Amino acid sequence: VQLVESGGGLVQPGGSLRLSCAASGFAFSSYWMYWVRQGPGKGLEWVSRINLDGSTYYVDSVKGRFTISRDNAKNTLYLQMDSLKPEDTALYYCTRVNYGLPDYWGQGTQVTVSS
Fold first, then answer.
1. What's the rounded Cα separation, in Å, for the pair 105 and 115?
2. What element of type H or E holds 35?
3. CB 95 within 8 A of CB 33
4. What share of the chain is helix, strand, coil (3-state, %, to 5)?
């Protein structure tokens, strides 16, 4: 199993980024997937989840600004992040959910929101 995130970077407040997570080594379409982040000096925050039927969950702090999606044909998970705020600065990970728990993680991609 391999999960490889990309798309992070430095962006000004109010800007946008699109994160991608390329999955391999397992049946991507058969698993729920999560985006998780860890800000500087903070614990893990479960940002967004997408289920097999495309239904989604978002933590309150990103509702209306972030959109999770998946392309099962490309084995890729996405996170479109708009109206970014400095408090969104974090290392963003994608994780596979297995029996309700994350079992594999990517290496993370850094998002920094700063003017």
1. 30
2. strand 32-38
3. yes
4. 10, 55, 35
CA distance 104 to 109: 15
Nearest of 6, 23, 19, 39 to residue 95 by alpha carbon: 23
Rounded CA gap, 43 and 21, in Å? Answer: 21
Q: Which residues pair with 70 in a beta bridge?
A: 77
The per-residue pLDDT for range 38-86, each reduced to its tens digit, is 999 999 999 999 999 999 999 999 999 999 999 999 999 999 999 999 9
DSSP at 100? T
CA dihedral angle for residue 10, residue 11, residue 16, residue 22, rounded to 10 degrees: 0
Tell me the three state secondary structure of residue 30.
helix
Both tokens assigned to 50: 């997408």
